[in-house]
Amino acid sequence: MAGGIGSRFWPLSTPEYPKQFIDILGCGRTLIQLTVDRFKGICPMSNFWIVTNAAYVEIVRQQLPDIPVDHILAEPAARNTAPCIAWACWRIKQQSPNANVVVTPADAVVMNPEEFRRVINNALNFTASHNSIVTIGIKPSRPETGYGYIKVNAAGQAEGEIHPVEAFKEKPNLDTAQQYLTDGGYLWNAGIFVWNVDTITSAIHTYKPNLANDMEQMKTPADVQTIFPQCEKISIDYAVMEPSAAEGKVFTHPADFGWSDLGNWASLHDKLDHDQNNNGAVGNVRMYECNNCVVHAEDAKKVVLQGLDGYIVSEKGGQILVCRRSEEQRIKEFSQE
Amino acid sequence: MAGGIGSRFWPLSTPEYPKQFIDILGCGRTLIQLTVDRFKGICPMSNFWIVTNAAYVEIVRQQLPDIPVDHILAEPAARNTAPCIAWACWRIKQQSPNANVVVTPADAVVMNPEEFRRVINNALNFTASHNSIVTIGIKPSRPETGYGYIKVNAAGQAEGEIHPVEAFKEKPNLDTAQQYLTDGGYLWNAGIFVWNVDTITSAIHTYKPNLANDMEQMKTPADVQTIFPQCEKISIDYAVMEPSAAEGKVFTHPADFGWSDLGNWASLHDKLDHDQNNNGAVGNVRMYECNNCVVHAEDAKKVVLQGLDGYIVSEKGGQILVCRRSEEQRIKEFSQE
Q1: Cα–Cα dist A8/B187, whole Å
Q2: pLDDT at residue number B6
Q3: Which DSSP letter does residue A170 get?
Q4: So what's the ipTM on this one?
Q5: How many CB pairs under 8 A join A and B?
Q6: pLDDT higher than threshold 80 for residue A6
Q7: Contact: B304, A297; criterion CB under 8 Å
Q8: Average model confidence (pLDDT) for chain B?
Q9: Average pLDDT score over residue span B1-6
Q10: How near does any CA of chain B get to the CA of A105, in Å?
Q11: How many angstroms separate the CA atoms of A311 and A293, rounded?
């Protein structure tokens, strides 16, 4: 899933060139390239499918030249994750009716890809023999209010590391998040799902028959243009996960592989290497008397910063932001004014 | 005189593209263009002479296309102002033995060009009939320690607004500058000189005979390459002004036309229009909760600044500086590390 258009990292990330296509960690690979790299040994390039906005198809082709061009599905309109996932799974099912599928966002990071592969292989082995949905549950390290949570069914029967899910929980307030952390039976919902393609298409038939019907009708590129934009705009969580979990059909694999959705500058700062003054920087950046800054200057030839404490500095394509870290929720507003 | 290579405005100004060639006020004209514009009605384009470093000749031609190409004198090496001025004056004397000449730096600003023209015309009328040097003396508005001062000879005979000079004074410390201001008989030395070409060439023959001899020898471009770099590296102030003043041959025209040498960011901030929070900005700049900042973003498409108090923000050609105004004396060091 590579359709995101977030502006939280403006000007680094823009609607024309969003976060998944940026080398946000300064490691030489963009987030979508890192996401594909992560599946090395699990999935050959010929088996990847990318769903993205039509505007980003060319960027995907440039960044992932080894993925078959007809596996890049261009959404004519953004309809949230349920139609996105349904489209890819219907297409996969046409080619491989028994495929086991991993669904993943293209814009998250995983600091331990080896552990990631171990967990994904476990989940794929499970779905190969179970008509069940597996969602990867990240072991929480802090009372994060920016993620949804998965409540493990403590009374349920585990199979190896894979546990039944009792319920999905919306993003909590801080008190509730703290309670989840203390309780111990809650995991972060990373939006990474593993299933047999028959399982998910059947679930969509059951819980969202109109969406399933839309998918059955979508046979030609012209069909996509007319039908896809009419699909119900709904997340896979609401459309499938919650009703499936209520019937005890969803499992989770708890995992700890250094995952982050990089949803804000604080999480990027967290993932970057820090100098002795707790600054994290990507680019040709020199800092004097700076502390606690997070800097990403992708295109600048040289950046010199002096006397900044707790600031975001971001540059791309001739646009520049300097902003207190405490004000980062206003960046989208700044980008639009 | 357009040979400056200052780095105090880095990255706005660089050795490759120094301050005189920058639209530092954001008015659509560079400092050298504004300097030429200022002489409208006094001096036709065919009578301008520019002395600059060989590296900047192409920039001068681009920015001042109406000045005769053979009036752009390319210094093969920087030798301070005495050889620079001598070269131009010897060349002018060849063409016009009785020319009255104004010498001016190319990188200062004058906020009231009409008053500037009135003063310059007064001085030119004076030198047309007096074998004397006139230096323009700026009425000081503060105890500035960054300029040299001119001490007026209070006992001397003035002719209209033009007074004899008693002495030139080096850049003072703050106490002395304050004393000059209180005393009232001191003016800033703006480095703007008016003289008959015969006066200055004679003075150089008298006080710097070796330099005069070098100029007499410099007949061909090849001569320039070999002789000019060997000229004594000395300012016109030391070479001519001080010994001439000691003999009572220098006059000054006190003036108040909004002059600044824009020698630092504080003086640029002073000359820019300010918003209600005392920010001065050039470029497509949006500021939120910013105070007392000076911003020059010449090439950036968009700059957003939040929560900065008393900072310099400068951008050009993909180089970016953010620095406390109190630390501006370190900018040259920053640019070189």
Answers
A1: 54
A2: 73
A3: P
A4: 0.86
A5: 88
A6: no
A7: no
A8: 95
A9: 87
A10: 30
A11: 5
